[in-house]
Amino acid sequence: QQVKDAQLANDNPSRHQEQRGNQPSYLNQEQRGNQQSYLDQEQRGNQPSLQPSYQGQRKAQQVTDISDAHAQQVLQTYGEDFIRLVPIDTVLLFKLETRHVIGRKERDEISRCPDKEEKAVKLFDILYQNRTADDFITFCQLLQEHGVRAVQQFGDKLLSEASSSRG
């Protein structure tokens, strides 16, 4: 078996891939031909990505030096808008949990609140009292990725205000 494995390793790569049955390769990016992911966009179809959008990544890079105090200040300033505009639904809560902004217990507590306003207040309190500026940035990115323009603009506004209050 070791001789056969050694022969496979020295064979030409395409023959090796045929014998492996086109299993995914664990090669580094150069060896993969600079592919971005195992499945490209066509192969994934229209499956949503859990990764932040390029726009969100770019904006986060611009504001990574927001302090916790600045994030809290912006949340306090826009608290009423937060409660009115932020869509507290299972999708947002799942994304916040997936990106480690909130935990499962907190997600469940928010979900148990009887109405939208109480859910928003609960999330606001968690972000304001117990989270870092990085969590604030992630939250804003999720708002920017939302399907409703007003929610996207609110995410932009929060990040913009927090980054301009740095100075």
Structural notes for this entry:
The protein has 167 residues and is an all-alpha fold. 65% of the residues lie in helices and 0% in strands. The chain contains 11 helices and no strands. It has helices spanning 2-10, 13-20, 41-44, 54-62, 68-77, 79-85, 90-98, 104-112, 116-130, 133-144, 149-164. Mean pLDDT is 75; it is low at 2-61.
Keywords:
0% strand; mainly alpha; 167 residues
Task: Give the H and E element order.
Answer: HHHHHHHHHHH
Relative strand content: under 5%
Shape: globular
Say how many strands there are: 0
The separation of the N and C termini measures: 66 Å
Q: Helix fraction?
A: 55-70%
CA-atom Rg in angstroms: 22 Å
Mean pLDDT, all residues: 75
Low-confidence stretches: 2-61
The SS-based structural class is: mainly alpha
Brief account:
Helices cover 65% and strands 0% of the residues.
Give me the secondary-structure topology:
Layout: H1 2-10, H2 13-20, H3 41-44, H4 54-62, H5 68-77, H6 79-85, H7 90-98, H8 104-112, H9 116-130, H10 133-144, H11 149-164
Helix pairs in contact: 4-10, 5-9, 5-10, 5-11, 6-9, 7-8, 8-9, 10-11
